[in-house]
Design brief:
Blueprint: H1 2-23, H2 40-55, H3 61-75
Helix pairs in contact: 2-3
């Protein structure tokens, strides 16, 4: 009975190694995606971030983002964001 048990274990170990070896290199290729255009908010953040950092160098980045978001909410209708070239 011990011999049967050992043979079953060897067969299972061999099957596991076959499955592991077979799974390598079988990844699906990634789909080609074209990058999205940045939103008006993203463009605003990119423009406002250096300005606010210069005005408040002592603030952490999270606090700067809070100020940028507040400015966006208050002036969303009046904000003019230049179009980016891509």
């Amino acid at each position: 009975m011990d011999q049967e048990y050992i043979e079953k274990i060897k067969a299972l170990e061999q099957r596991v190694s076959e499955l592991e070896a077979g799974s390598k290199g079988t990844k699906k290729p990634k789909k080609e995606r074209k990058p999205r255009e940045p939103s008006k908010y993203n463009q605003f953040v990119k423009e406002a971030s250096p300005r606010i950092k210069a005005a408040h160098p002592e603030l952490k980045s999270t606090e700067i983002m809070k100020l940028i978001a507040k400015e966006w909410r208050e002036n969303k209708a009046n904000v003019v964001v230049p179009e980016t070239e891509q």
